[in-house]
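Researcher: I'm comparing several assemblies side by side, and this is the next one on my list. It has 238 residues spread over two chains. Same procedure as the others: predict the full complex and return the structure.
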Amino acid sequence: QVQLLQSGAEVKKPGASVMVSCKPSGYNFIDYFILWVRQAPGQGLEWMGWINPKSGVTKYAQKFKARVTMTRDTSISTAYMALSRLTSDDSAVYYCARGPPAGPTADYFDASGSFWEHWGQGTLVTVSS
Amino acid sequence: QTVVTQEPSLTVSPGGTVTLTCASSTGAVSTGYFANWFQQKPGQAPKALIYTTTLRHSSTPARFSGSLLGGRAALTLSDVQSEDEADYYCLLYFGETYVFGSGTRLTVL
């Protein structure tokens, strides 16, 4: 069965960076996009971006463009989300989720399909001095 | 900046029917926004219910249905059960990026 295993909780100081990993199993890693979403305590969900593990092409939400980097290591079937210049507003649970199948071109993203069904367990990032 | 708005809270009686809506600050929501709906309970990851506006995921009970209603995406819950008490989020696609709705807290009382 499809599972996404995320790295453990992190505590960071303001101004630091954090990297969260996401290791899927139960399917071929490079065949599906990885999506990243976060949720601050008591707040709603916030889409951060996606990465095509096959090509490495990424798309970020405008809000995070200057601070987020999504990468992958295909040799160990793992996706990463790094966020820099952390503030207390970045304290949140960060989730990865499986996206649509990687399409015919490196940046082709088919939003019409049945995905968003498989999520990681979430990684709590706390930013505190 | 695009804002997607949902009712902050709704209350429904067990066995009743309730409709949650999802509006975009850019105008009427159409099928081209590929609306998704999620249910989230405390301490859990979101659970996908509806994709592409009207389609249920394989695990979604038939009492959940998606539609377009008056220029908004809508999620209707029929024969509401106590276990449907949760937060519900819509998600709209804007060509290359997504925006989540503000969320609706559904109380079954």
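Model: For your comparison table: Residues 91 and 97 of chain B are 10 Å apart (CA to CA).
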